[in-house]
Structure prediction request, 331 residues.
Amino acid sequence: MKVETHDRLEAIDPEIWSTVHQSARLSAPFGSFTWQREWVRAFAPDRRLELRTVGDADGRLVAVLPLYEEAPGLLRLIGGTDVSDYLDLIAIAGREEEAWTALLATHADDVVLDLHCVPAASPTVTVLPSLAPIAGLAATIEVEERCPVLALPATWEQYLAGLSGKHRHELQRKIRRLTREIPDARVTSVANPEAIGTRLGEFLDLHRRSRTGKAKFMDTRMEGFFRGVVAALAAEGRARLWLLETPTGPIASFVTVEWRGTVGLYNSGFHPDYATLSPGLVLLAGLIEDAITRGVERFDFLRGEERYKYEFGPTSEPVYTVRVGRGAAAA
Prediction:
């Protein structure tokens, strides 16, 4: 296996990157060339990048480890720690172990890899800790956060029947109440990049209104990232903008991302003047019903264990921080 290092994303053909990404165990959009490009543009335009590629004897790209320098001697996965829900070595499924073996063999003595948001089932979590000592390295893993995930049944009726009695009653009560108070309310979605560009401002307004601290989060730089990445993913059929419409305008909105039989709930906003009508929960129910209707297998609430997510009956899956370095450097 041959390891090479590049200092810019464009050194790797986007189509080849996409082929590897789509062949990976987890093809969530956070590891796509599109997402990584938009993240670098918004948050790391002047950072030193270190993209390590692994090729096989036939010259075929097997894996990409996209890194940026957070501080001298400290490298993190491109995608950061705030806006990307799953990050990892991007590798063809089944070839992760040999890719990591090659990468560890060429790892510099004075560098620590600080890998965030790594899914529990990834070989980076399950195999890397045993591979690291062979290369004279130490690896530590710890739970960073949890993602509530819902396995979807064949019908909406089956989904409702599977909820606890309390959660089913509360969800149906909230849907009836909003329908009674705003009879013309309706769930809509837009997937066309141009339409998303036109209406994303409504999402951003609701996002900033919905909770203390969100306006600070959604600063000019973050807004630029959202506008760029959501439109770019929509052009690839991997993002949608959802709105709960009323005659006076939308009162709740979500951005979702999609990959391989999964809908991911990326971000949200709602109008606080309508909080008593639970517009976010009602819209979320519409998203889940739509996913079931389309035959989607999983609904992933992504990182964060907010209470409202558990009202929909998901199970919790951890994501990990994995640190790799010489001796105590990884601790």
